[in-house]
UniProtKB/TrEMBL annotation:
GO terms for biological process: lactate metabolic process. Residues 316-385 form the 4Fe-4S ferredoxin-type domain. SUPFAM superfamilies: 4Fe-4S ferredoxins, NagB/RpiA/CoA transferase-like. Keywords: 4Fe-4S, Electron transport, Iron, Iron-sulfur, Metal-binding, Repeat, Transport. The keyword Endoplasmic reticulum does not apply. PANTHER family: LACTATE UTILIZATION PROTEIN B. This is Iron-sulfur cluster-binding protein. GO terms for molecular function: 4 iron, 4 sulfur cluster binding; metal ion binding. Residues 452-493 are annotated as: Disordered. Residues 74-299 form the LUD domain. Residues 394-485 form the Lactate utilization protein B C-terminal domain.
Length: 493
């Protein structure tokens, strides 16, 4: 029942090369991202204190991460006091084993799912399928991805790479194999596509005894979980089944209900450009005669505490999964989400995936370079994650120390492979800038030999200069110009 996975993905440049040559994909991405970013800008402009809300969100997240141990214990106590059961999972394998065992205990062989990045991160659908348990995605975009045996390519709109015609063909071809078939004569109008999905999913909602969800937020003081969505499928999954299993990353905590108020203003405007989400579902444990009678919360680490130990990189754990950074990123717009080799694509994926998974693989070591460092992602982030800063930090870590791997209980950096030339160039530059005489000589030599400078670089450098113009060397070095025009005097006031 699973779609494609990201296992064995090539490095970003190779994957992106294929994507940028797909005209249909680029047209789909350009139309969708420009539409979403335009609507978001209008929604944000309505809020006079947006900058203050953004700063408040940043501070709340930073405070929570600094005291995560305390708030996790408080959350566990609150959930258990409300009738829930809490499970701790160190990695994806443990989390999947816990969920599989919980479903088996119910005697059921199928589950309905709310859209969840965490369950995609750990490969839960594949783990359930391996044990004979069918997992049905109920979010419209996730349903499209699942029926198409595809991979998600966007955080908010996983099927953003598909157009309406492609979706119609997927529904007509695949729905009958998963349950209720698509209506005869289905067209590609949004209303008909939505109705086909609604009819297909309705029987699953009414039949399922087990629901699986993630959570946008967890409130430590009350043990309340929160899911925000726009279609109502989440509400059905969270209320109709007899057993609810929520799989959530440990960083999704906020300390109090008052803190939650900030994010319920910034998340919908940044993601769907709405003033508030049409469906905001909250639940605290279990209640007799109302909703699921058994509730399990599976808290997953899966690389988060390693990320937390990095003073620069830990910013990524502030992320509230709004996807605003994807919609403004020129690299994402051209390469699409699949090229990132992760359920977290775009700028946030370029800094989150290498930290959660380490940089031992080809794809993860290449992700910090999948950016022009234009800074648009930082400008739109509702919790002020300085993504360019983290990208540069990770590039430095990869170039200097190589991939991060786990040895026992420690994460260590192995010697880098394939970055020797870059390290040598940086060492040469550092030496030159620390020796003014040598730098001055080099500058003068460069200015006097400008007529011999090639327009393109030789060898491996040809790929770089083939798409860039080398800057012209000035007629004289700045130091000479300064000496000639100011006599070497300090003219600062």
């Amino acid at each position: 029942m699973s779609g494609g996975t990201f296992v064995g993905m090539p490095a970003f440049p190779e994957a992106a090369h294929e994507a940028v040559n797909n005209k249909t994909l680029r047209a789909n991405l350009r139309h969708a991202t420009h539409t979403i970013r335009g609507k978001r800008a209008k929604a944000v402009a309505e809020v006079s204190d947006w900058a203050e809300l953004r700063e408040a969100g940043k501070r709340i997240k930073d405070h929570t991460l600094r005291h995560l141990d305390r708030y996790l214990v408080q959350l566990e106590e609150s959930v258990m006091a409300a009738g829930g059961v809490v499970h701790w999972a160190a990695d994806a394998e443990e989390a999947n084993r816990i969920v599989v065992d919980l479903v088996r205990m119910t005697g059921e062989s199928e589950v309905v799912k709310v859209k969840s990045m965490a369950t995609q991160e750990i490969g839960l659908n594949e783990a359930l399928e391996a044990e004979g348990i069918a997992a049905y995605e109920t979010d419209l975009a996730e349903l499209i991805v699942q029926l198409g045996k595809d991979r998600p390519s966007h955080i908010l709109v996983p099927a953003i790479h598909r157009n309406r015609g492609e979706i119609r063909d997927i529904f007509a071809r695949e729905m009958s194999e998963w349950g209720r078939p698509a209506p005869e004569g289905l067209t590609d109008t949004p209303a008909e596509l939505a109705e086909a999905a609604r009819l297909h999913l309705r029987e699953k909602f009414l039949r399922a005894k087990v629901g699986v969800s993630g959570a946008n937020f967890m409130v430590a003081e009350t043990g309340t979980l929160v899911v925000v969505e726009s279609e109502g499928n989440g509400r059905m999954c969270l209320t109709l089944p007899e057993t609810l299993i929520s799989v959530v990353g440990i960083e999704k905590i906020v300390p109090t209900w008052q803190d939650l108020e900030v994010f319920l203003q910034t998340l919908p405007r940044s993601s769907t450009a709405e003033r508030m989400n049409p469906y905001t579902s909250t639940w605290t444990g279990t209640t007799d005669g109302d909703g699921p009678q058994t509730f399990h919360l599976v808290l997953i680490d899966n690389g988060r505490t390693d990320t937390l130990a990095d003073e620069v990189g830990r910013q990524a754990l502030r992320c509230i999964r709004c996807s605003a950074c994807l919609n403004v990123c020129p690299v994402y717009e051209r390469a699409g989400g699949h090229a990132y080799g992760s359920v977290y694509p775009g700028p946030i994926g370029a800094i989150l995936s290498p930290q959660l998974r380490g940089t031992a693989s080809e794809i993860d070591a290449s992700l910090p370079y999948a950016s022009s460092l234009c800074g648009a992602c930082y400008e739109v982030c509702p919790v002020a994650i300085d993504i360019p800063e983290v990208l540069v930090h990770l590039r430095e870590r990869i170039a200097q120390g190589g991939p991060a791997t786990r040895e026992g209980n420690k994460v260590v950096l192995k010697p880098a492979k394939g970055h020797a030339a870059e390290r040598a160039a940086m060492r040469a530059a550092r030496w030159a800038f620390s020796h003014p005489g040598a730098l001055r000589t080099g500058q003068r030599l460069a200015s006097r030999t400008r007529r011999f400078h090639p327009r393109t670089l030789p060898g491996p450098g040809r790929a770089w200069s083939g798409t860039r113009d080398l800057p012209a060397v000035p007629a004289e070095p700045f130091r000479d110009w300064w000496q000639r025009t100011n006599g070497g005097k300090d003219t600062r006031k």
